[in-house]
Amino acid sequence: MEPFKTITSRAVPLDRVNVDTDQIIPKQFLKRIERSGYGEFLFFDWRRTSAGDSDPDFVLNDPKYAGSKILIAGKNFACGSSREHAAWALSDYGFRAVIAPTFADIFFSNAGKNGIVLIRLSELQVALLIKRATETPDYQLTVSLLDQSVTDAFGFSASFEIDPFRKYCLTEGLDDIGLTLRHAAALDLFEAKHDEAEWLQPKLVS
Known about the structure:
- By secondary structure, the protein is α/β, with parallel strands linked by helices.
- The protein has helices at residues 21-24, 44-47, 85-93, 105-112, 123-135, 164-172, 176-181, 184-195; strands spanning 6-14, 70-73, 97-100, 117-120, 140-144, 149-151, 157-159.
- It has a single domain (6-172), classed as Alpha-Beta Barrel (Aconitase, domain 4).
- A 7-stranded mixed β-sheet has the order 4-3-2-1-5-6-7, sandwiched between helices.
- Strand 2, helix 3 and strand 3 (97-100) form a beta-alpha-beta unit.
- The longest helix has 13 residues, at 123-135.
- The mean pLDDT is 90.
């Protein structure tokens, strides 16, 4: 994973509650096993009209939010099925942080393992950020994982909680595989000794 320290980016206001994982990445796109290639299908049904054209009224299709790395959403974000593809799609699209009042538990775990920082703020704070991101041209937020803070240029400042182990993994860019590989030398030594163990050696029958 790419380490996360501090980012400053435009913020996308997704003013919807109970956004479920089938809306984040619809089921018909769950056929591939790689983590990449999902970004173009993020919020697929919302980004297109019934005729299949790009919907200009959907926020992700607004050019002013192009390249955004921060998503602001309503409560209970990523509820529904436990598909890890939802985190893959958000990450592949380019989002590094999601701000919401609450998140579904399984998604909360999946996101952290895929380099996405999830930030819980109060509903009032989220409502204010959504309003500013909607109405203020080129509105940007700064998310500092090191300081566990969210700030903007207009005086907004909020702190957020995060598990220390998750923070360590995100700042160091370590997913589950990366964590395991930190002990590669010790694992190799264990395997070598295990293979040489006397009880594993073939016995000669006289």
